[in-house]
Description:
Layout: E1 39-42, E2 45-48, H1 49-65, H2 67-80, H3 86-112, H4 114-136, H5 138-160, H6 162-190
Antiparallel strand pairs: 1-2
Helix pairs in contact: 1-2, 1-3, 2-3
Amino acid sequence: MAVLDEYKWAPGRGSDDDIPPASESLVHQEGANEGEEGTVASGSTNISSATAAALAGGVIGLLVGGPVLGLVAGIGTGYAATTEGPSGDIARATGDVAVSVGKSAKQINDKHHVTDKAQESIQSAWVKVREVNEKHHLVARISACLRSMGEKVMEYENKSHILENILKGIVSGATALLEKLRGRDANEQNVPN
């Protein structure tokens, strides 16, 4: 995969052999979305390539593996964008793509008022849900049904003691495993080397 020269590291100071600190700037050279040095213009604010890369990595990590992976991926991608080499080049390019996608989404929203229409639809749906609930008392019926189910489950548990028996089985299994491990440890301590 070839990375365009516009995403290559451009050290502001120090030798080429030094690993650049995070405070050195990234230079977006070709000028398509130029703001200040190391930033990409996005609307009225300038977002650094590292920040945009961190946001993109965090969102992708969140979607793929949840909040912990999102946090790790965001931090990792943001850090990678501040380093020299192919991983840094790719991270910065990812950040620039994220900014470009954000700008396109904003343009589409400005033209077609997508968020306003979505908000109106949600409000309309909520009003209809409330009307149906007021007419048919769905929330009260559902809560009564769930309460009844809970009472039946507890009644069945009191008769059959299923949960109690399961817990007793877990305790006896854990106790047997612990005794075997203690026996093994005692045997290993008695064996001469």
